[in-house]
Amino acid sequence: MGGVAQPFSAEAALKRAIRSHLRNLGFTKDEAGDLVLPGVGKDTIRKMHRGQRRERLTASQNFLARALPKAMPFFADGDEIDPQRVALRLRVVRSDTLESDLFRVAALTWSVPVSAGFGRRMRYLVWDEGHDRLAGIIALGDPVYNLAVRDKLIDWTVHDRAQRLVGILDAYVLGAVPPYNLLLGGKAVACLIRSRDVYDDFRKAYGETVGVISGQAKSAHLVAVTTTSSMGRSAIYNRLRLDGTDYFERIGYTEGWGHFHITDALFERMRTFLRDRNHGYADKHKFGEGPNWRLRTIRAALAALKFNENIMRHGIRREVFIATLATNAFEVLRTGAVAPDISGLLTVAQISDLARDRWIVPRAGRGEIDFRGWRRDMIPKLIKGRVDMPQASLRRSG
Asked: Burial level of 388, CB count in 10 A (0-12/13-18/19+)?
């Protein structure tokens, strides 16, 4: 006698969902059970981010209906930009303001979903005061606790890192919006991080603080900022020099481990699975309770499901860069025994002038790309993924 088909248990359903998600991304397995990417390139990386980007866009529909019409006039048409008049400045973004809405709208144009950051945060609009238009966005937040290439470069012990990681932030959002990106504005925006303005803003916001992990009072100075390319190797940050000064240094690659290919919806199902088993990681996500709560939570769920942790080896090695705001940054971070030497830091205004003359004006004069053909009314299509972010060739940009 035939029986009624029984529904899958929550555990079995979650396993099926994970396997289905990885197959849809194009992963296969080798003989050792490790995941294998279907070729590593920008198209593959975008595909792996597509699920998260779609989730973010769906969740942002009410926000966009409210904020996009107000934001649109602040984006530039290409034909209104006179490269000689570009004057970049930083505007601090505070929560629940027009600036925060504009930052969020701009971030939604990225093909790779933008993180919300965690811990300490400093967010900026990069404003072109010469035209009163938005040129780019910057967000700095607490760095990854374990980053092998960074820690090796500084020559940190585990104790040293715990004591002095407070002197580093990570640029988790960094870039120019159209049409400024077509004029190599991404390079100019990146250089603004290594400015006296950013150093002073950090000192004002976080100079006298108590370490959440250590519980100790710290007199913090921002002496270095890391960033990681979103598309494997980066043409933006390589050879980033102004007036004989290196603004970013390439220090290596990540190891190809992480969780960006796990969508928010799948992550929430993992949390529910752990919560039903009274696992502490399900809701343990205050800063200071671990270097990467999301990663540890996913690992805990995979272990409970008896999945191979190699699911987290996505294989995409991202290029890592560091900008030093103090000439003796590595000594400060390694020993904590010396004061930062920031005598060489320029202001944002000074860096903007150098970057305009170094990249923006020459790029416009070459006529290699039609930046004047960009129209702000393409922004909604860019957000919806109906057009790709316009790109300028960087082959001849030192």
From this structure: exposed
The whole-angstrom separation of Cα 367 and Cα 369 is 6
**Alpha-carbon distance 287 to 274, whole Å?**
20
Cα separation, 176 vs 155, whole angstroms = 33
Q: Is the peptide bond before 179 cis (omega within 30 degrees of 0)?
A: yes
pTM of the model: 0.81
Structure tokens at 73: 């006039």
274-282 long-range contacts, CB within 8 A, separation 24+: 274/300, 274/301, 274/304, 276/10, 277/304, 279/304
End-to-end CA distance of the chain: 76
Closest by Cα among 194, 232, 234 to 325: 194
Q: How far is CA 217 from CA 163, 211, 288, in A?
A: 10, 6, 15
Contact 198, 142 (CB under 8 A): no
- Report the SS3 class of residue 348: helix
Q: How confident is the model at residue 353 (pLDDT cuts 50, 70, 90)?
A: very high
For residue 375 the two structure tokens come to 């129209």
Q: What angle do CA 206, 211, 213 make, to 5 degrees?
A: 140
The Cβ of residue 278 has, within 10 Å, a number of other Cβ atoms equal to: 7
Q: How far apart are CA 72 and CA 82, in angstroms?
A: 20
Question: Which two three-digit tokens encode residue 94?
Answer: 């505070």
pLDDT tens digits for range 146-169: 889 999 999 999 999 989 999 999
What are residue 1's DSSP bridge partners?
A: none
Q: How many residues does the chain have?
A: 398
Q: Of residues 62 and 254, which shows the higher confidence score?
A: 62
Count other Cβ atoms within 10 Å, centred on residue 264.
14
The CA distances from residue 134 to 71, 279, 282, 370, in Å, are: 10, 45, 39, 19
C-alpha to C-alpha distances, 387 to 212, 370, 382, 383, nearest whole angstrom: 43, 16, 5, 8
* Residue 78 token pair: 């290409």
- Which residues does 3 contact at the CB level (< 8 Å), separation at least 6? none
366: which residues sit within 8 A by CB, 6+ positions away? none
Taking alpha carbons only, the member of 92, 95, 94 closest to residue 138 is 92
Say how many CA atoms lie within 13 Å of 96 toward its Cβ. Answer: 0
